[in-house]
């Protein structure tokens, strides 16, 4: 297949049926100009929003659920800044629970308010908030779910209905004013955060976490490390001592391992879709707490370990785990360039397969126009958040591989004295598939998008 016609295998729906995507997937991140012309499949072209917030295809509409700086309905303070990863959970009576990350650093404009028994480190400004929605997407409650963490980027949901929020930092106590070490995963219960509290899952490693996905058959947790500069991150798996044990079970510990692909020290060097590697090895991480040496720099033996730049999105589909490398740049130290890869790992076969490559043999010029958060849509396609410059988009890929622009952020575009509308993040669907929820990173905004999704 040519470099501009790629194939990806994913599941058709929550039932897990496998389907194939083919199409000009390189257009997915071809930049704003190309995106203007992508919306002529699936749902039609994007219609400019007269309110200047969110362009959608005809027949779709949005509701702003929450914006940074507004009062939290719990009375705990203000809605924090920097909305990022998110997941939706089913509740009783048609309710939906949203758990939303806030990727706040020490410089964050609005921190997550500290709440008793839900705060890990009082110096941390990150964390999660939780929203309860009725069946018409009206906000019934909004509260702090965890506080005192740092740079909560992405994460993932568990088979038992909780959210694992990931800190994308390696700052130790004494750095940036922190009182405790950071770089951990924390578990958040969407209905009652006090059940899970603010307890770091230390056995799962201390590094620049991005996202996780769990094998629902055996409870193995896969983790991505978003390391921007060399030495780049690793792809990990965590073997829990108490697999699939429910909320709090991951505190029982387990083994953290890193992926070694024999003969492939850097995933960026693999450029051909369909390239597969059998005999993938998993090597114990010598010191998961990274007391003196970051996990990606530790000694993995004479065979070394496999690195990749910008490992980000991670999800489980059918019987495999998929993970994203947003881009690789030789100028940063990568062995080769690309503008996005999606990999599939089959645990049963111990086989790693490259299923999508974006560029550099496409017309993409900005490495920032790269895949980030990904989710499966109710129709079996993909929804992908763009993380780049200028106008920001949520793109879709149909079952036939057609690429289309699903949403475009417009606020402040072309206004010299105002910041641009930030990247999209945290795209997810309601349990019934009738609503797409998505965040704008800055100014932090959570949207609910409804329309003819099943058309």
Automatic annotation (TrEMBL):
Membrane spanning residue stretches: none
Coiled-coil residue windows: none
Pfam families according to UniProt: PhoX (PF05787)
Matching PROSITE patterns: TAT
SUPFAM superfamilies xref list: Calcium-dependent phosphotriesterase, Thermostable phytase (3-phytase)
PANTHER family: MEMBRANE PROTEIN, SLR8030 PROTEIN
Name of the protein: PhoX family protein
Biological source species: Streptomyces carpinensis
């Amino acid at each position: 297949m040519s470099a501009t016609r790629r194939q990806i295998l994913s599941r058709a729906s929550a039932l897990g049926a496998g389907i194939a995507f083919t199409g000009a997937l390189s257009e997915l991140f071809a930049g704003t100009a190309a995106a203007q012309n992508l919306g002529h499949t699936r749902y039609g072209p994007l219609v400019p929003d007269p309110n200047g917030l969110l362009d959608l295809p005809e027949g779709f509409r949005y509701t702003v659920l929450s914006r940074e700086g507004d009062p939290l309905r719990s009375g705990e303070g203000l809605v924090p800044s920097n909305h990022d990863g998110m997941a939706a959970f089913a509740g009783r009576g048609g309710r939906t629970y949203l758990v939303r990350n806030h990727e706040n650093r020490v410089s964050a404009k609005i921190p997550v308010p500290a709440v008793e028994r839900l705060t890990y480190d009082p110096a941390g400004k990150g964390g999660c908030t939780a929203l309860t929605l009725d069946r018409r997407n009206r906000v019934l409650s909004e509260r702090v779910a965890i506080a005192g963490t740092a740079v909560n980027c992405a994460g993932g949901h568990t088979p038992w209905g909780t959210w694992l929020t990931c800190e994308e930092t390696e700052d130790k106590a004494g750095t940036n004013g922190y009182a405790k070490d950071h770089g951990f995963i924390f578990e958040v219960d969407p209905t009652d955060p006090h059940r899970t509290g603010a307890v770091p899952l230390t056995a799962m490693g201390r590094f620049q976490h991005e996202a996780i996905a769990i094998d629902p058959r055996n409870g193995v947790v896969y983790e991505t490390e978003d390391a921007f500069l060399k030495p780049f991150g690793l792809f990990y798996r965590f073997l829990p001592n108490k697999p699939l044990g429910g909320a709090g079970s991951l505190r029982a510990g387990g083994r953290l391992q890193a992926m070694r692909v024999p003969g492939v020290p850097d995933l960026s060097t693999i450029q051909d879709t369909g390239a597969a590697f059998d005999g993938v090895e998993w090597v114990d991480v010598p010191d998961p707490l990274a007391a003196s040496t970051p996990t990606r720099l530790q000694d993995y033996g004479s065979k070394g370990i496999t690195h990749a730049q910008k490992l980000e999105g991670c999800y489980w589909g059918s019987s495999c785990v998929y993970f994203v490398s947003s881009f690789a740049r030789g100028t940063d130290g990568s062995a080769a360039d690309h503008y996005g890869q999606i990999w599939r790992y089959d645990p049963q076969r111990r086989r790693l397969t490259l299923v999508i490559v974006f560029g550099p043999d496409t017309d993409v010029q900005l490495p920032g126009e790269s895949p980030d958060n990904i989710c499966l849509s109710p129709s079996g396609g993909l929804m992908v958040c763009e993380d780049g410059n200028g106008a920001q988009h949520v793109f879709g890929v149909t079952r036939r591989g057609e690429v289309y622009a699903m949403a475009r952020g417009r606020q402040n575009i072309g206004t010299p004295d105002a910041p641009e509308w930030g990247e999209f993040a945290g795209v997810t669907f309601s349990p019934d598939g009738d609503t797409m929820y998505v965040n704008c990173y800055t100014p932090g905004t959570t949207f609910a998008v409804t329309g003819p999704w099943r058309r």
